[in-house]
Fold:
Amino acid sequence: MKTSLERLKFVRHRIEKACITAGRQSHQVSLLAVSKKQPSEKIRIFNKLGLSSFGENKLQEALQKQRELTDLDLEWHFIGAIQSNKTREIAENFNWVQSVDRLKVLNRLSTQRPEQLDPLNICLQVNIDREPQKAGASPEEIMQLAEISEGLANIRLRGLMAIPRMTNVPEEQHLSFKKVRMLFDRLAKAGHDVDTLSMGMSSDLEIAIAEGSTMVRIGTDLLGIRET
Ligand SMILES: *Cc1c(COP(=O)(O)O)cnc(C)c1O
Structure:
């Protein structure tokens, strides 16, 4: 069994290697630890090892861990499907929401973000391969949502999040990530002040970094097999 430190070193090594290959600098890619279905104790361990950003995809599970970890200074990212009746608790308890894919949710998050907190950091989730079963807005909808987000007081648009289609064909995998990157560039060209391209998970972080990812979201290879 690998220790947590060994896992962290290995993931960091992979990120560094991918950056070198891509001619990028490793500080350009941040690491989000995806702690879904992992106990609070694991978050504590990885925080001691230097990580402070954690991603969760289920609201109740996340709130429970937040209550158990109030003594730590953590940055929480919501990365799961959002029901619109849950937006208030999300707006009140997270620093980032990476899975915004429709107007209703965007509006509610802005309205419900408490005034005394910083604006909520948002990534719009794009369904880049237009897979019917998958969450995320179409590229056209993304451009509209970005435009609207600029007028919302308590939202700060940071960029895009995507989970491209899984395939064993490396060229296809590259192409999907490249399409996300091109949409990100379009947002920047349209005048949006975006700095975050959240793509790449345990199995494909190298390809995502080659195509311009600035944030990889790593669960399994960092925290181990999830409890079910
Ligand atoms: C679970 C999850 C991840 C991490 O996946 P791993 O393959 O375990 O690294 C990343 N992003 C999202 C949105 C997830 O739900």
Q: What stands out?
A: The CA atoms of residues 119 and 154 lie 4 Å apart.
